[in-house]
Every structure is written in structure tokens, then in C-alpha cells.
Amino acid sequence: MKKQLLLLLALPAITTWCPAQADLKVLQQRQSTEVVQALAATIDAQDLQRHLTILAGDAFEGRETGTEGQRKAAQYIASVFESYGLPKIGDDNSYFQKISFISENWDRINLAVNDEKPRHLWDFYAMPNLNGDLDAYKTDEVVFLGYGIEDKHYSDYEGADVKGKVILVYGGEPFGADSLSMATGGRGVSKWSTDVRHKLQLAKAKGAKAVLIIDTDFKANLAQARKSITSTSLQIGQSENAGDKYANNLFITSDLARQIVGDRFKEVVKARKRIQKKGKSKSISLPCSLEITQRKRVRTLEGENVLGYVEGTDLKNEVVIVSAHYDHLGKRGEDVYNGADDNGSGTSTVLDIAQAFVAAKNEGVGPRRSVLFLLVSGEEKGLLGSQYYVNNPVFPLENTVVNVNVDMVGRTDEKHKDDPNYIYVIGADRLSTELHKINEAANEKYTKLALDYTYNAESDPNRFYYRSDHYNFAERGIPAVFYFSGVHEDYHRTTDDVDKIMFDKMTTIARLIFHTSWELANRDKRIEVDVKP
């Protein structure tokens, strides 16, 4: 009631005006210092503390992505948006944008050829996401099968029985003297060269047990694939159920292929020349003792971004996104990482700024542009929630004017321990000089914080510009600003608790973020990208 009264006292009645006059009056009110200050005053330490005490309480168990604690936090945020009366624009008529995360890597991967043991990531490699589990599969025969292709103009499978067998194929596809693909009849490479999944699906359909692919550019391709093969980090997406879709497969060096071919080398070379000359394939049985073991570790998590949407008026198709990540590190044994500053502080800030925009809309002076309050999960796993949003935007990215990101705004670092009246501003001038100027003007007029640009320097060794969710927007060419109060002794520790949060400081920062966001949402012209990345 107090917040509504503050706003009502600040807004002159417009009911007696004609429509054109009323529209002009509303525009004037939006820019009125008194109105904007009244809206900012609805952001207060009491509300911030109330939100943060809940989000960073032990009941939410540190909010680690994919855990019950994270889901509780998401439900709490959604309940706040519902209390504001915001529409449900998420999946299944909810406030949520659901995300699947997966990590697939090798637990065991071994290959034996004629009693020798080639080395993984040296003589062969295999992509975990393209393979199912295969336990010590043994065979005494490998079938050479050209390129492993079947298309309207060409087939390696015609007359060949590969059911239950291991096949050896070349990568890519065959081309005739006229540079036309023998498989498709067209000029240039086809799907058989650009996506190995087609060969693996075909081999699976034909009943092959495994595919050995001769990689003639092995070193370069391995270098490109190594990170994804060895990484244990989560990625966005669901499992492809590779064992159901693809034949198990290994990419091998030409030297290893020569070892498998053995005494049939000349016959294989002749078969390849026949393909190149006549477009006719011939399968060759290769006596070879082979054993393959492939055993994966698969980890899956389900998370969700939470969406709070305030629709704009005359410029509603343009969108300002105000974001923060709400996930943290969760529990380690009985220790809870509550993450009050990281990033309960940013989440609480966004919730209270959203309330101020809702108050404006309820009083008839809502923002001209629409504003999406985006609370993301998966930040602690590698900025995955914001990455998912830019890959699957609820509103077109070309209509997204700016991202205003809030990550850790409740504490003071060592540099500013004697004067907490500051905020680090990162990224505002990286793509748009206007964004930088708008934030500086808002601060000069309303909040008088010391704006510290230390971490905005491209030479910053901490690389904070690349380490929070705004970066996924900036990478897509969308201007972004990141508010951050710095690292402290409790960063990523169990001691990052609510009792250490400086709520007066946090309130002032939240009001600066509101004033900047308000200007971005209400100015006549959207800010321009005028800096080359």
C-alpha cells in the first residue's frame, strides 16, 4: 500500500484529457524526475532483504542447477511474478523456459587390433555423443565397404551383408572426374561429407555392429574434436540415444587402417580405384582380430529459466532484457553454499526492479518498450541458461534492444572497503557508446555512485566481461551492461550468507539499474550498435 500511495501522489490525474493530450501527458510523466524517482523509491532494502533471505536460505540448498533446491528457487521466482500479475509466457502456460543439460564422456574406451592396442586420442578417437555402450565386442572379420553410402546414384551396400559385422569405410564421398558427387550427382559435397551421422544411421539400419572411419585428416580433426571428447562439463541438450540411432563408430588413422587391411591392401586399393573410375563399389572381407570396448558416463540435468514479462505500449515489439542468474553451487556433503551475493543479490534486485515496472504499468505510465525480466539457471555450469535463451529466444533477437545483467551487487571488495558507494560497470561501451552514456547520466542524476571501469578493460586478466550471462547477448551483437560489486573473501564459499549483505548499498545499485533500464525502455529511439566488436 505504501508503494502505491507514493506513486499516486506523484502522478497528476489524466482522466480529463482528450486521448492525444493524455498520450502526451503520459510521455511527459514517464520522463518526469518526480515520477521516475517515485518509481525508484519502490525499490527498497526491506523488499530486497525479504527476497534474498528466502532465496539464500538453507531450504533452497544452494540452488544448484538440476536439484530440488534450484527448482524451489524457480518456483519462488515464478510465485513473485504471479503476485505481480505478470502473464505466463513460458512453456506449457508457465513462467518457465525449460532446459535440458547433458554431459557424455568416456569411462572406458579400448581397441585391440591383431593383439596390438592402438591408443585413444592418438591412433583413433570416438565421439561419446555418437556412440552407445559396447562391451568387449570381438570379431575375426572386418568388411571394407567403400564410403559406407547408399544414395540414388551410388551404393556401397548393394550385394553386401553387414549384419552384426564391423565395417571399414572412408570418410567423405566419392567424386567423378567431372567433380560431381557419385552419390548425389550434384556438384559439391553432400550430407555424406558434411555430417557423419548419415553414414552411422545407415550402418545401423543395415545391421552393422560398428563402423571404422578412415580419417585422412586425422590430426586436424582430432585437434578440433579433442575438447568435446574429453570435457566433463554440461552442455545444453538432451541425449540423442546414440545407441538406438547410430552404429558404434571410431575414427582411425590411415596407418591403423593399413594394419586392419593387412594382406588385402592391394585388393582394397583396386576396389577404391574402381569406385573412382566406374562408380561401382565392392565389399571385401578382411581377416582381422578386433575387439572394441566403449563405455560412457552420462549425466543429465533439467533446469529452467524463469520469465517475467511487462508488455510495453507504443514500442512493445522492442524488448529490453534485465537478467540475473539464480543458480549457485548447491551442497557438498552437509555444507550448503547459499550464494547470498552470488547471485541471490542479483536475483533479488531484478525481482524488485520488476515490481517497479509493474507499479508504473498499473498507474498508466508503463514502459514504451516491453521488458523481459529473465532469471537464468545454468550460469555456474558455463552460462548455459542465457546461452539457451539466445539460441531459443522467446522474443526475436533482432527486436532485443539491450541486456542489462546483474551479478553480485551486495558486498564490497578489498579495493573499496573504505567506501562502499561504488559499482563496477562492465561492457556498456563495448558495442554501444549510447548505453555507456545513458548509464553515466542516470547515475549522475539519481544515484551518485562511483562507477569503476577497472574490469571493463579488454586487458583485464580476470576476464569478467566473458564470465556472466550478458556475454551471450553481446556475442550476438546485442548491447549489454553488467553490474558487479567485485569478488570478496566469501566468493564460492559456504560463508556467502545473507547476514553479510549490505542492503543499503544494494538498494542504491538497484535504483541505478532501474533508472538505466527505464531510460532504455522509454527513449524515442533504440540505442544503436556503433562500436565494432
CATH class group of the largest domain: Alpha Beta
When the domains are counted, the total is 2
CATH homologous superfamily annotation of the largest domain: Zn peptidases
* Spans of at least 5 consecutive residues with low confidence: 8-20
Tally of extended strands?
Answer: 16
Average pLDDT metric: 93
Q: Given the C-alpha coordinates, what overall shape results? A: elongated
Spatial separation of the terminal alpha carbons: 46 Å
From the helix content, strand content and strand pairing, which structural class follows? alpha/beta
The Cα radius of gyration reads 30 Å
Can you give the helix content as a percent range?
A: 25-40%
**Known CATH architecture of the largest domain:** 3-Layer(aba) Sandwich
What percent strand?
A: 15-25%
Largest sheet: 14 strands, mixed
